[in-house]
Amino acid sequence: MFYDICIKAIKRGMRPNTHFNKADWKFVIQSFIEQTRLSLTKAQLKNKWDGIKKVWRVWKKLISEIGVGWNIELETISATDEWWKEKILVSCHYQ
Fold first, then answer.
1. What is the per-residue burial (b if ≥16 Cβ within 10 Å, else e) of 64-93?
2. Whether the Cβ atoms of residue 39 and residue 33 lie closer than 8 Å to each other
3. Nearest-angstrom CA–CA distance, 28 and 30
4. pTM listed for this prediction
5. How many angstroms separate the CA atoms of 72 and 28, rounded?
6. Residue 44 and which of 12, 22, 36, 85 are 20 to 30 A apart at CA?
7. What mean pLDDT is predicted for residues 53-58?
């Protein structure tokens, strides 16, 4: 629900730059309370927002690689077998 609330806020023109302002956060917090009945602080929701941004940056970088795409129907990464083999080798090397 938090993601949907943030997307709704952005589509309403909130977050004109790179962050929500005080009024925007008030909307996000109030919407979250109304939809979940959970009263979280701005700091708690901001931590969630910051975590989402990190994951989004990794995802964005991943799908921007040559030979990689996003399968909308399956909601999965699509890539060539060669790409996957390379990533698995790199992953094994760092473990």
1. eeeebeeeeeeeebebeeeeeeeeeeeeee
2. yes
3. 6
4. 0.66
5. 28
6. 12
7. 88
